[in-house]
Design goal:
CATH architecture: 3-Layer(aba) Sandwich
Radius of gyration: 15 Å
Structural class: alpha/beta
Mean pLDDT: 95
Largest sheet: 6 strands, mixed
Strand order of the largest sheet: 2-5-1-6-3-4
Helix content: 25-40%
Number of strands: 6
CATH class: Alpha Beta
Distance between the termini: 34 Å
CATH superfamily: RbsD-like domain
Number of helices: 5
Length: about 150
């Protein structure tokens, strides 16, 4: 166990986050998402909801400042979104990234295509309908004590 690392983050997920570069995308997928058939780099976080994972990931993960860093699936025509899902995610995100924007919404099949090209997919225990969230990684700033003066 490491100090300052949320216990919901597995060693495999920490390694994946460290390997990602600027512009790489990570999908936090709900329990019903077809992660293993879409992306060969699929990790498991069974029993952990997405808001909890965000609490662990966002302090370690800079969101992209040059492209929409948050993407969620839009409702299929005739279906409805539960606004509480996005609100729950934004509360967790904004605790560590106060300027985090509202997620962009894209068509279901466009979301699947992004997931195919994503750096990794994390299968979670999230059961909320349309609960998938894509994070785009930004440039991690150098801590002040390590910057050249």
């Amino acid at each position: 166990m490491l100090k300052g690392i949320h216990p919901c983050l597995s060693p495999e997920l920490l390694k994946t986050l460290a390997e990602m570069g600027h512009g790489d995308e990570l999908v936090l997928a709900d329990a019903h998402f077809p992660g293993h058939s879409i992306n060969p780099r699929t990790l498991r976080a069974d029993g952990v909801d997405i808001a909890t994972l965000l609490e662990g990931i966002v302090p370690l993960f800079e969101l992209d400042a040059y492209a929409p860093p948050l993407v969620m699936m839009a409702a299929v025509p005739g279906d409805e979104l539960d606004p509480a899902v996005e609100q729950r995610y934004l509360r967790a995100l904004r605790r560590h990234a106060p300027a985090a924007p509202t997620p962009e919404r894209i068509d279901r099949f466009a979301f699947y295509e992004r997931a195919r090209r994503a750096f990794a997919v994390v299968m979670t225990g999230e059961t909320a309908k349309y609960g998938n969230l894509l994070l785009k990684k930004g440039v991690t700033p150098l801590p002040a004590n390590l910057q050249k003066q």
